[in-house]
Amino acid sequence: DPHSGAAAAERHYAHSNPRWASLLGDIASEPDAHRFYMWNMGSNVSGQVAHYLEGTQVQDPGTTVMLSTYTLVHDTCGYTATPALQARYDNFIQQVAHGIGDFHVVFFLELDSLITAPCLTHQQLAIRDAELTYAISVLEADPHVLVYLDGGAADAVPFRHMASLLRGAGVSHAQGFFLNSTHFDWTSTEIHYGQEISRLLGGAHFIVNTGENGRGPLVPRDRVHHGNEDLCNPPGRGLGPLTLQDDVAQQTNYADTDGLLWFSNPGGSGGQCVPGAPPTGVYWPAYAVMLARNWVDRVNGPKFSLLESPFARQHG
Q1: pLDDT band at 185 (very low <50, low <70, confident <90, very high)
Q2: How confident is the model at residue 311 (pLDDT cuts 50, 70, 90)?
Q3: pTM of the complete model
Q4: Could you tell me if 5 and 40 are in contact, meaning their C-beta atoms sit under 8 angstroms apart?
């Protein structure tokens, strides 16, 4: 995407800091998932979605585009789990689907929508499930769209609980689920977690975000009060592995694992939690440069007996 934060930063530093520009180019040259928010799109949602997708075909004709939405987790955990906002969200999804039209899209539906579900009341969870189920039905009605649901991360929700949440949200009608979208957890851990969930869901497929996890998570000293990992611009992190070659998605060697991709906008700020950090979502070139310098382009992390894919067995 020539208009991505990484691409803009690469151009900005092309003359003043060529080394930074080169590292930012490593991120800019790889696909990312363009993200849509209901809150800042006004009334012409379908027009904006169509305009973006038309631009991708001018830039790279015939490409399949990754899109994502991050709307249901807003302010407090259950803020959008009300009948009024459910109706507004359903209308938003209808417009997104209309804007997609006949374009080919892999859709990462609602980042953090199920990883945060344990904080919802029973009534709120029923609304969240209805919102996601409806979105899947509308988007998957287009044969050119493949929808993946938020499956959280291994260090946040036990796999049995997550399998139950995915089942309630309608994963059986989607292409599968995605993992690690807002975490930095090890790739091997997330593949193992995904395979455990997949086993309980009858072989559902999944994709792992590896945009910032090449060096794994930063674990706080006080995990009781600060959680299993530091999620707000943790220092020392790096890009992780990609299952892409010459811009073409490749088979993975792991059962039920459809891809290891950067769909989290590597370099986007997690918030103003450290000096110099911009607000949440704003591109932070210095952080992106750190990620690129620390890139680990292989599956790493704790050792698990990961299930191999048929592709891996056929090709040794």
Answers
A1: very high
A2: confident
A3: 0.96
A4: no
Closest to 6 measured CA to CA, from 275, 298, 292: 292
Contact 183, 229 (CB under 8 A): yes
CA distance 249 to 242: 9
The 3-class secondary structure across the chain, one letter per residue, is CCCCHHHHHHHHCCCCCHHHHHHHHHHHCCCCCEEECHHHCCCCHHHHHHHHHHHHHHHCCCCCEEEEECCCCCCCCCCCCCHHHHHHHHHHHHHHHHHHCCCCEEEEECCCCCCCHHHCCHHHHHHHHHHHHHHHHHHHCCCCEEEEEECCCCCCCCHHHHHHHHHHCCHHHCCEEEECCCCCCCHHHHHHHHHHHHHHCCCCEEEEECCCECCCCCCCCCHHHHCCCCCCCCCCCECCCCCEECCEECCCCECCEEEEECCCCCCECCCCCCCCCCCCCCECHHHHHHHHHCCCCCCCCCCCCCCECHHHHHCC
What Rg do the C-alpha atoms of the chain give, in angstroms? Answer: 19
**What whole-number distance in Å separates Cα of residue 146 and Cα of residue 72?**
20
Rounded to whole angstroms, how far apart are CA atoms 235 and 222?
17
- Provide the pLDDT confidence category of residue 316 given band limits of 50, 70 and 90: low
Q: Is the dihedral of CA 157, 158, 161, 162 positive or negative?
A: positive
pLDDT at 261: 97
